[in-house]
Amino acid sequence: MHVDVKICGLTDETAVAAVRDAGAEYAGFVFFPPSPRHLSAARAAALAAPLRGQATVVALTVDADDQAFDDIFDTFGPDMLQLHGQESPERIAALKRRYTVPVMKMIPVREARDLGAVEAYLAVADRILFDAKAPADATRPGGLGLSFDWRLLAGLDLPVPFMLSGGLDPDVVGEAIRIARPNAVDVSSGVETAPGVKDPSAIARFVKAVRAAEAARDRSMERIPS
Ligand SMILES: O=C(O)c1ccccc1N[C@@H]1O[C@H](COP(=O)(O)O)[C@@H](O)[C@H]1O
Predict the structure, then answer these.
(1) From residue 31, how far is each of 91, 117, 156 by CA, in Å?
(2) Residue 224: band (very low, low, confident or very high) from pLDDT cuts 50, 70, 90
(3) How far is the CA of 221 from the centre of ligand 1 (A)?
(4) Is position 131 annotated as part of the catalytic site?
(5) Full-model pTM
(6) What range does the domain containing 183 cover?
(7) 44: part of which helix (H) or strand (E)?
């Protein structure tokens, strides 16, 4: 079974070229001023141009207002929205009516009961993204390189695909896929040399590690008698 890869927080042309060369399926651009990966819509549009038609271009926002969304849609034109704040199901339904774009809603996870929040979003979100819950004093709700216990997702059966993020890197992503069995994985800090500075070789290694984990998963499925 294929596992899609999203590389998030691209800030320069070198990182964009690495994503294109590695064949990642999703490329994320951050629109959240406190983040070291924040970009203007115009800069993000210019950076994303070589990825159009090859990767799904995602706009990551955190409780953004209507004016911010209008700017992102008018100038950047995302293929998908990643909502990484406390957006309500009603807010998501309104955004989907206004922009007719698929939405991925982030659910913050620290313990099993956090998964209960998913239910309310299943009718409106096209994808669920599970990320580690940020500490209360964090300056942003993600992109911190923090992970959670992937065993919490083992055996999860949702009616929509789910993506796993939080503290992934080329060395641990295979184990994360083996345990959580996500449809897709998302990484930012784990392929950087410093916050906001992507490492092209780490991006290539991350995608390679995901492909190897996929192959291992397929081999293990073949061994299960029907
Ligand atoms: O990347 C950011 O700066 C960011 C800012 C605000 C919300 C989310 C952000 N990134 C997302 O966080 C997760 C985990 O990232 P990491 O790999 O642990 O650094 C991922 O989904 C990013 O898209």
Answers:
(1) 18, 24, 30
(2) low
(3) 31
(4) yes
(5) 0.96
(6) 4-222
(7) helix 41-48
Residues 214/4, Cβ–Cβ less than 8 Å: no
CA atoms within 13 A on the CB side of 60: 27
Active site (annotated) includes residue 8: yes
- Residue 109 CB burial class (10 angstroms; 0-12, 13-18, ≥19): buried
134 lines ligand 1 (CB under 6 A): no
CATH of residue 21's domain is 3.20.20.70
Number of domains forming the structure of the chain: 1
How much is the average pLDDT of 118-137?
97
pLDDT in tens, 75-88: 999 999 999 999 99
Residue 54: other Cβ atoms inside 10 A: 13
CA of residue 160 to ligand 1 center, whole Å: 21
Q: What is the pLDDT of residue 226?
A: 58
Nearest atom (ligand 1) to Cα of 106 = 21
Does the CB atom of residue 28 touch ligand 1 within 6 A? Answer: yes
Distance 219 CA to ligand 1 centre (A): 31
Q: What are phi and psi of 5, to 5 degrees?
A: -120, 135
d(CA 90, CA 85): 14
Residue pLDDT, tens place only, 151-208: 999 999 999 999 999 999 999 999 999 999 999 999 999 999 999 999 999 999 999 9
